Structures are given as structure tokens and as C-alpha cells.
Amino acid sequence: MSTTLQKLAGKLSALSVYQGVLQQPVPHALARLVREAARDPLRPRKFCKRWGSLMHALCEQKSPNALSESVTQAILYDANPFSIACAGGKPVPALLEAAAQRDLETLREASELASEEILRQIGHPEWADLYALPVWETGALPELMQGVPAWAAAHLREYYAAHGCGIYAQYRAFIWRDKQIQPVRYPDTTRMEDLKGYDLPRQAVVDNTVAFLRGAPANNCLLYGDRGTGKSSTVKAILNAYYDQGLRVIEMPKEFLMDFPKLVAQIAGLPMKFLIFIDDLSFSKQDDTYASLKAVLEGGVAARPANTLIYATSNRRHLVRETFSDREGDEVHRGDSIQESLSLADRFGLAVNFSQPDKAHFLEIVRQLAAQRGLQDHWAEMEKGAEIWAIARGGRSPRCARQYVDAFAVKLQLETSLGQHC
């Protein structure tokens, strides 16, 4: 029996700082295979099962020939005392640094195990053919893991400081759910170039975001206006444009605004910049969530950390639905009540209006979208149908323009396909 595999199995079991890496699919399967290979006597059926599990994990990550890269990715995204301290710019105690270096050396050794090497060490190279075992390659060792453990740890400190750790290094978009920040694995891919029209209001939001990323004074932002004008899409496009500069977005449903102190407590010490995104914000009356948002924006004892801004979208400028009966109520000081209802919107330092486009603006948006889709040669036909499409759908908007261009492209594709078959 290979003493090398037995030692490696022991060292993997003794991981301390990077113990969480073994919960990730590829390292988890690799560790189980090493432990099985280190058994005496060997159990061929169990060994083959562990072998297949590792290959399955590699294939699921679309990297059957990159074992080293898969293990390195798990290291980069692991949240542990070492990575969290580095991400927050805090000093790392010597004992923690030494433990991290030991773990990194062990994980690097494991990540360099080629399939042929394992079979050679257990003394059964014939099992590859006998049991039709699939093979993998370790691939080139990522630069981050090359060199001595102290070198790797130093480069990881730089990586964590720049990109954060855990889910914040792996994902860009999140949602607050079940009292936790949960990653959005497939975020909206809207890009700035996909958004047509509204250049001036959108630029105001972009400028505010850039100032925030640079550490300059920036404001909480309210994007308000008619439906379908690109308010939410603007926030998503900004995330996709600037996430590589440390920007992250956490969507917080309105009904959970009372959890805001719990949310910011989890991100206050991180190096990234966070936009807390509240979509489609409005209130039918002043309820508990209304008061919570007022406190969050200004005046609450739980201060908003410097790495956080609130971006909200709403179809209402003043957020609270008003009726004539509200203005004619029986309160002695009706003016004070009205001002109280309108004060929430005033607490956003930046309010940007996205209003419904007129006919000329709408057609220009359609024309730009058509050009982006390569449909400019059909503009005369499209222009005739655009207004009819908008009227049938209750009004003009960029969303309506995109739907029209998509529908026209499908219609054109079908006509072309039918023509080719005739």
C-alpha cells in the first residue's frame, strides 16, 4: 500500500483553515478517492465508485482535464478566517498564516494527482483497462498556486483584498432571502449597449456609481417613472459593466426592509461596494416597512456602511400612493401628514426620472434596436408597424420597442424559412 497516499489522506483530514474547500464537489470527490485508495486492503468496487464520482464532478464543472484548476477555484472562493481577514484588510495572526500555508501545500499536492499516478501508487495500473476507468489530467497548475506555500499565501492575500472571498468573489448578484444573502447563479446579462435612449438620466446614475466605486461622495438613488422605461435594466447593466471593479448588487424585497441592519452587518467589513437594490418600490400607506426604509436612508441608529448604497426603482415619484381622501382627511394638521408621506422620496440624494417617450423618441429607440439586430434594411416596414404595436399594448416604452423588434425579427425569420422551402 502506498504510504504517500496514506500521508496525503491524513493531511487532507487535518485541513484546518481551508477545511471548507472539501465541501466543494471536485475537492470533496478527490479527498474521498484518496482516502479510499489509502485503505488496506483495497476494495476495488468502492475504489471504482469513488473514481467515477471524481470524474463526474470534473465533468459537471466542464473541466475533466483541469483538476488543479478546479481545486484552485475552490480555494479562491472559500470563506474562512484567513480569506475573510485578507478581504477586510485586517492583519493575519502568525498562527493563522502558518496554518493556511500548510493547508495550501496539502491542497496543491492533492490537485497534482494524475489518474495514472494514483493507479501506479496503489500498484494496480491494470485497473484502468480492467474496469474501463476514465482518465483525467491535472492540467497546468494555476500561477496563483505555484511556488512555495508562503508565495501562494501572499498572492492569495492580494486576491482576497481585491476580489473578496466566498460567494462575493464567485458571484456578482445576490438576493436577500430567509435572513441570508444568497447568490444569483444566473444573473441578468443586460449590457449598457443594449439600452437605447435615456442617455442623460442613465448617465447620472452611472456617474453616481463611478463616484461610489472611487470612494468619492455618492448618493442613494431613486429611479422613478413610467413602466418599461429601463429603470431596473439600468441597475442591472451598471452591475455588468462595473462588477470587475468590485461592484456587487444585493436585491432586497420591500417586505424585508426591516432586516436591513442584519444584511449590512454581513457585508460592512468587505472590500467590495454593494448596491442594495429595491425594485418596484411603492407603499399604499405608511406601514412598518415604510418607517424602516426612512430609518435606513437617514436618521436610523443602524448606520449604512460606507461600502453600501441603496438604489430603488418605482413608478411613483413620491413612493406613497395618495388619494383625494388623504388630502381631505379629518386630521387637524393635514399638511403635516402630507409632508410626512412625501418625505421618504426626499431622502434619496439622487432622483432620476425615466418618463414615457414621445412618438419621435420611441421610433428612435426602435431604429437603434433594429440596427443592433441587423434589421436596418427593413426600417421602412418596421417604422410603419411600430406605432400600431405600441398603441395595441397601451403605450410607448423601451420595453415595448424591444418586444416589437423581437417580434419583427421572428416574423422575418419565419418568412425567410418558408421562402427557402418553397
Would you write up a description of this structure?
With 422 residues, this protein is an alpha/beta fold. 52% of the residues lie in helices and 9% in strands. The chain has 19 helices and seven strands. The protein has helices at residues 3-13, 25-37, 44-60, 67-76, 81-87, 94-111, 115-122, 127-130, 149-163, 167-170, 199-213, 231-242, 260-267, 288-297, 324-327, 334-346, 359-372, 379-392, 398-421; strands at residues 173-177, 180-183, 221-225, 247-251, 273-278, 308-314, 350-354. The protein has a seven-stranded mixed sheet with strand order 2-1-4-5-6-3-7, sandwiched between helices. Strand 4 (247-251), helix 13 (260-267) and strand 5 (273-278) form a beta-alpha-beta unit. Helix 4 runs antiparallel to helix 6. The protein is globular, with a radius of gyration of 28 Å.
